[in-house]
Design brief:
By secondary structure, the chain is α+β, with helices and mostly antiparallel strands. It has one domain. Helices cover 42% and strands 21% of the residues. It has seven helices and seven strands. The strands form two sheets. A five-stranded mixed sheet has the order 1-2-3-4-7, sandwiched between helices. Strands 5-6 form a two-stranded antiparallel sheet. Helix 3 packs across helix 4. It starts with 15 loop residues before the first helix and ends with a helix. 30% of the residues are buried.
Length: 209
């Protein structure tokens, strides 16, 4: 576990946005919360590495800092469904690099609303003063948020709608992730890429791919 102000090796983070996230996030966390980076998680399919894990008592959330070259969306959906379905995490967040660079307080505020126990009272108060978001329900798999006082309402609202992702087992769209998890569960021992290949073949046979 790492805390701001403590020494850490230069190679502890794999990218500049991870370092930005780590150093700033720790300012707002509760002292009782654990904060770990580059955490390996063993599943029935393969071992995954998560950028950050924040935990306290029964709450454990994963945070992925996604660069602009980010991966295959379907693979991410399967991976997160497995991590949630097997009970490794309560939630999985994905934040873009530009959101971390320019809107990190907004990202952290969103987390503090859902998981207040992970943040200190002072941290929650500071984020509540700094953020510029309000949650707006939309028919989307992703938690939808818009800026409360946006300088550019359309562009910035679009950024958050498309790229701040909260994958929670309590989310009304969990049935989709559950479907992916259950499909993967029928093929234990296969790698995630092998599972995805079978998933695609299934839809090709049904004429839906």
């Amino acid at each position: 576990m790492w805390r701001e102000g403590e020494a850490m090796l230069a190679d502890a983070w794999e990218s500049p946005i991870e370092e930005i996230f780590a150093r700033k996030c720790c300012r707002y966390l509760s002292r009782e919360a654990d904060f770990d980076c580059q955490v390996e998680v063993c599943t029935r399919h393969e071992r995954f590495r998560v950028d950050f894990v924040l935990s306290r008592a029964h709450e454990t959330i994963a945070v992925e800092c996604d660069g602009h070259d980010f991966h295959n969306p379907l693979r991410d959906e399967f991976r997160d469904a497995v991590l949630l379905g097997e009970g490794h995490f309560t939630a999985v967040y994905h934040f873009r690099g530009c959101d971390i660079t320019f809107y990190l307080e907004d990202c952290l505020w969103l987390m503090s609303v859902k998981f207040p126990a992970l943040f200190s009272e002072r941290g929650r108060h500071q984020l509540d003063c700094l953020h510029e978001l309000e949650i707006v329900p939309l028919l989307s798999q992703r938690e939808a948020v818009i800026l409360r006082k946006p300088a550019d309402p359309f562009r910035r609202a679009w950024v958050f709608r498309r790229n701040i992702q909260q994958k929670l087992s309590s989310n009304p769209y969990w049935p989709y992730w559950r479907r992916l998890y259950e499909f993967a569960g029928r093929h234990p021992g296969l790698s995630l890429d092998q599972v995805i290949s079978l998933w695609k073949k299934r839809f090709e046979k049904e004429g839906r791919a």
